[in-house]
Q: What sequence folds into this?
């Protein structure tokens, strides 16, 4: 046999041998296709792992429509977003760019064996949530005591869940038709119904839509509750010493926000100046504190001050009375009593008298109207609840020192000259803790003191006579 024929025969045997080997090892799938969950607009890739492919071919089909996407290295579909690639004979890829909802479904990797072999991978095109603007509430304004529905409708795949929260973190108050109340930190549902709303429910509400596909979305809905202004005054009567700065305050609740200002009883509107400081401090969406500071308080500043709040629903005002508080160093006034000058002052003067008089045996002269009282020692001590004086007589009327609020044991006591008669007061002690209002200069006070003095003179004359008799 010629040499050329021998070579040709050898090549045929080799080819037949390779064919037998190839068909002796049928192709198979080395791994399953991994499913894809891809957000809309992103790229998806399916990988088909094959072993012993040999001379067989790999094809890609859309499982639900049986539409051929590609065979081996050639794209069959007319979809420009579909491509194929392979790293070697064992790894074959199908690429889909910018996936859409129509791309959702199963993709089949197929081997043209007999019988045919195939496996499927699924593409889930997910869509992040978004709100349907025409079905979602905007900012709401309602009167206090009414009911309102806040709506947030969202789309996406899977279907989003809508949750409501208050922006400030406070609880949501839910009420039913029977009037029962439920307080919750959040509420799930597209529609949030608020019944018989109060001003405390005013604020911003957040509806949050999520379906596991990032990002979640939220919408802020502002709920405004309108009502007539209300004023609360912590102190309607405020006192201060002259020369000091004094501040008065009013608490305001109003929605919409009110215009706030101060007016004095003279009709003058007060604004910030060297004399006055006017401040408004916002505490919440509907609460504010308005304050007025009067600098270097003087007598002409005494009077009523009105805080006024006004909005579109009405006007309200409240008055605060500002008065003078006497200082600690009180002035002592003088007046005539039984044609003699007597002193009227504070209770501190009486304390000075008692503290300097007790446990003293000195002889003292106390001037009366027409004579003197002379303290005689030794003598029998006299205990009287309204007196701090021992007495003697040398003719004429006696002078008297009356102490109305202390009792002393039976000891020798003296008084001082001049002596003090306390003011007669009415009402409770003043804010500085010293005294209340005094009418010590009135006719009634003089008559009262005259009666006390007359009774005291009679008592001490009787005591003096008893002492003289015992001495004799």
A:
């Amino acid at each position: 046999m010629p040499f050329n024929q021998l070579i040709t025969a050898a090549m045929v045997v080799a080819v037949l041998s390779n064919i037998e080997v190839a068909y002796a090892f049928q192709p198979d799938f080395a791994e399953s296709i991994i499913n894809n969950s891809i957000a809309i607009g992103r790229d998806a890739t399916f990988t088909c792992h094959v072993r012993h492919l040999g001379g067989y071919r790999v094809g890609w089909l859309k499982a639900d429509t049986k539409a051929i996407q590609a065979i081996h290295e050639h794209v069959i579909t007319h979809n420009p977003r579909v491509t194929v690639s392979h790293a070697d004979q064992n790894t074959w890829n199908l690429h889909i760019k910018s996936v859409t909802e129509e791309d959702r479904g199963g993709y089949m990797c197929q081997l043209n064996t007999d019988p045919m072999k195939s496996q499927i991978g699924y593409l889930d095109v997910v869509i992040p949530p978004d709100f349907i603007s025409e079905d979602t509430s905007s900012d709401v304004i309602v009167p206090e005591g009414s009911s309102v529905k806040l709506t947030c409708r969202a789309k996406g795949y899977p279907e989003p869940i809508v949750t409501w929260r208050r922006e400030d973190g406070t609880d949501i108050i839910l009420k039913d038709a029977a009037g029962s109340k439920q307080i919750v930190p959040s509420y799930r549902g597209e529609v949030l119904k608020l019944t018989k709303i109060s001003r405390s429910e005013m604020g911003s509400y957040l509806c949050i839509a999520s379906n596991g596909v990032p990002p979640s979305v939220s919408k802020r809905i502002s709920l405004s509750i309108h009502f007539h202004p209300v004023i609360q005054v912590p102190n309607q009567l405020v006192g201060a010493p002259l020369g000091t700065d004094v501040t008065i305050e009013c608490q305001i609740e109003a929605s919409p926000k009110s215009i706030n200002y101060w007016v004095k009883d003279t009709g003058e509107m007060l604004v910030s100046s060297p004399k006055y400081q006017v401040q408004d401090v916002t505490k919440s969406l509907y609460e504010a504190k308005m304050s007025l500071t009067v600098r270097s308080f003087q007598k002409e500043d005494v009077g009523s001050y009105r805080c006024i709040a006004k909005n579109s629903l009405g006007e309200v005002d409240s008055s605060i009375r500002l008065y003078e508080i006497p200082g600690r160093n009180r002035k002592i006034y003088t007046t005539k009593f039984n044609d003699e000058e007597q002193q009227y002052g504070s209770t501190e003067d009486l304390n000075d008298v008692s503290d300097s008089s007790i446990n003293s045996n000195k002889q003292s002269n106390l001037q009366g109207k027409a004579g003197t009282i002379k303290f005689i020692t030794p003598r029998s001590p006299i205990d009287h609840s309204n007196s701090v004086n021992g007495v003697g007589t040398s003719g004429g009327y006696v002078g008297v020192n009356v102490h109305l609020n202390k009792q002393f044991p039976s000891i020798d006591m003296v008084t001082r000259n001049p002596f003090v008669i306390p003011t007669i007061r009415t009402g409770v002690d003043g804010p500085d803790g010293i005294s209340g209002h005094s009418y010590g200069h009135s006719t009634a006070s003089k008559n009262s003191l005259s009666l006390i003095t007359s009774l005291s003179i009679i008592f001490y004359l009787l005591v003096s006579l008893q002492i003289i008799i015992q001495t004799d």
